[in-house]
Design brief:
Chain lengths: 296, 356
């Protein structure tokens, strides 16, 4: 600060000074995000060579051709999109009622309590949380014991090391993000909107369906988008809850890079994963503009 | 039974009393205002009538029907909110059609009614706009059209002008009143703005701290306020301190300093000899002129301040140790007074109101 002031005194304008203040952030961002991602992008266009990390000047589209000509990679991409979509939907359905209750709770103490409840799980590292879930979801886990004890099933139902398990893990992970996003938006809807709908003849349920829910569409869209992006890029949850058996794109990236040392092809999958996410953002924004009269 | 009837209605929120023992009768077709400072209970009263708030005690009847326990959607009441509550995800057309869709009218009839409502509020051509594309005044018109199109028994207006700028407010005041008159709908208007209430209402209920202090026509409320609070809340007032010298029916003589003036008593009030009272005189009721040597007016004062406001000139006149605001039309036949000038102060006997 004193240095900045000294520079200011030495003839820099207010305006230039302001730009000086963002230098640390920009430097960090460039060094640890822009350059690595740029290199990753460049690497994806290098010819495949096992064990080679450095970027070379040869340009090749072989990695992309390989990705799009192998059905297991295309299936993995489809599986990733499906997984992220299902997780977004389930998270939304589970989170909305809770978010609604929090947004409508005016008592500050109760409100804080509910928010702490939501945020509590975020205080634990994801890996620890997932091991905790395994105790519940495993073949000898709590749920299977209850099911069998009640005679609902003969043997254990596979609740983890499969697609289902990954969904459970990701929903658990994504819920707080969705709830917080929704609370903000639902709180911002003036109560008079629902009251206006009621006095115009709508029952409580109709008023919710026709007014409150559509008015919270910006939150539904941005929450879903956030959860979609978090889910499709998650590695740790598919790794632990899917036991490497659910081949989504991040698992393939890990396998290419860490197990096969095929950095170029790993980079290619990463770029494609990024493009899928970016497309989802674009679609959501378009949807948002249409469904909410430009509110999103 | 009146068209709208509140019987011993009260509303408690925890330990605080928002409305206490309210009795109101509102006639069909009447423009009735609930006027008072914020927190006086006027909004709670309106919200109880709309069905958003359940009264703690008492009953509300509308058109002979007990609506106390009915949910809002069963009440046939239209309400316009301070923020207009235009549904942001719907076009103007869909906003106005909302109540008609809920009533399951055929599509063609909805279209016809919405078109008529748009024409009535002067918003034809705005069907496809969204809320964010409308000005404050336009939102107001849409909100009113949305309510009038369902032809409710009662129209409730909750501070509908307070979000508008001054010029628009003046315009909408007359516009709303005209619409109300042409539709003939029973209207209850909540406001803290006394000039809105005076301009628009057939009758006004002045409220404070959960109670109705006075109900009357704008003329009654302004010219015969029942208490000092009302006198000071409605319009501008001079309250001169004095003592009662003599009481003669509805008229009494009040001693102010060394002078004696007359004032009339309002209905239901009484004073006795030697009682300390205040005499209410509105600034525009007072006349001034420069003191003549051979004249002996009852009251004299000196000009302490002159405020030129274009259409009127305001003087602060000092009488003994009290201040009196006087408002004089800016006309060539009325003399302009100078600072520190000694002046005679007059008002008609009827214009002074004695407040206990």
């Amino acid at each position: 600060m004193t240095k900045a002031l000294a520079i200011g005194a030495s003839g820099l304008s207010q305006h230039q000074l302001k730009w000086l203040l963002v230098v640390p952030l920009v430097a960090f961002f460039v060094l640890f995000f822009v350059i690595p991602v740029g290199l990753l992008f460049a690497t994806s266009f290098n010819p495949a060579k096992v064990g080679q990390v450095a970027v070379v000047s040869d340009i090749s589209f072989d990695n992309y051709i390989r990705f799009f000509s192998r059905s297991n990679y295309l299936m993995a991409a489809g599986r990733s999109v499906l997984l992220a979509s299902i997780v977004s939907l389930i998270t939304l359905v589970v989170a909305y009622p809770m978010a609604f209750v929090i947004a409508k709770t005016e008592n500050p103490a109760r409100n804080t309590f509910l928010l702490i409840l939501v945020l509590a799980s975020m205080q634990l590292d994801m890996v620890i949380r997932l091991y905790g879930m395994m105790v519940i979801l495993g073949d000898n886990g709590l749920i299977n014991q209850i099911f069998q004890g009640l005679g609902l099933t003969d043997g254990p139902v596979a609740l983890m090391y499969n697609f289902r398990g990954v969904v459970f893990g990701l929903v658990q992970f994504a819920l707080p993000f969705m709830i917080l996003t929704l609370v903000g938006v639902i709180k911002g809807i003036p109560p008079s909107l629902e009251e206006a709908a009621r006095s115009l003849g709508a029952s409580r349920r109709r008023a919710f369906m026709r007014v409150t829910l559509p008015a919270s569409m910006p939150g539904i869209l941005s929450g879903s988008l956030l959860v979609f992006a978090l889910s499709i890029s998650s590695y740790i949850v598919p790794a632990l809850m899917g036991g490497f058996r659910v081949g989504v794109l991040p698992i393939h990236i890990y396998q290419q890079v860490a197990e096969s040392a095929r950095f170029q092809f790993g980079a290619t999958i990463a770029v494609i994963l990024f493009l899928i996410s970016a497309t989802a953002v674009a679609v959501y924004l378009k949807l948002g503009n249409r469904s909410s009269g430009g509110l999103a | 039974m009146a068209y709208v009837e509140f019987s011993t209605i009260s509303k408690h929120f925890g330990n605080s009393v928002a409305v206490a023992d309210l009795d109101l009768q509102i006639e069909q077709g009447e423009f009735f205002s609930l006027l008072g400072p914020s927190g006086c209970g006027k909004s709670t009263t309106l919200r109880m009538l709309a069905g958003f708030v359940k009264p703690t005690t008492g009953t509300i009847h509308v058109n002979g029907r007990d609506v106390t326990a009915l949910p809002p959607e069963a009440r046939d009441i239209g309400i316009v909110f301070q923020n207009y509550a235009i549904f942001p995800h719907m076009t103007v057309f869909d906003n106005i059609a909302f109540g008609l869709v809920e009533r399951k009218l055929p599509r063609a009839e909805i279209k016809q009614k919405v078109d008529a409502a748009l024409a009535e509020v002067g918003m034809t051509g705005f069907e496809d706009r969204y809320e964010r594309e409308l000005s404050g005044g336009q939102k107001q018109r849409v909100a009113l059209a949305r309510v009038l199109v369902i032809e409710p028994e009662i129209l409730l207006l909750d501070e509908p002008l307070s979000a508008l700028d001054k010029k628009m407010r003046e315009e909408m005041k007359f516009w709303i009143k005209n619409i109300q008159r042409s539709v003939g709908i029973t209207t209850i208007y909540v406001t803290h703005d006394q000039s809105e209430a005076l301009t628009m209402s057939d009758r006004i209920a002045v409220m404070d701290q959960g109670r109705v202090l006075q109900i009357g026509t704008p003329v009654e409320i302004y010219e015969q306020p029942a208490s000092r609070f009302i006198a000071e809340f409605i319009g501008e007032s001079n309250l001169l301190n004095g003592t009662v010298k003599e009481v003669d029916g509805a008229v009494s003589s009040i001693r102010i300093g060394t002078a004696t003036v007359t004032g009339r008593l309002t209905q239901n009030s009484s004073v006795s000899k030697d009682q300390d009272v205040a005499l209410l005189v509105r600034p525009e009721m007072i006349r001034l002129h420069a003191l003549d040597a051979d004249e002996q007016p009852k009251l004299t004062g000196t000009v302490a301040e002159t405020i030129y406001q274009g259409s009127v000139v305001r003087y602060r006149i000092q009488i003994a140790d009290q201040d009196l605001m006087v408002e004089v039309a800016n006309r060539p036949d009325l003399p302009r007074l100078d600072m520190a000038e000694e002046v005679a102060v007059f008002w008609d006997a009827d214009s002074g109101v004695v407040m206990a």
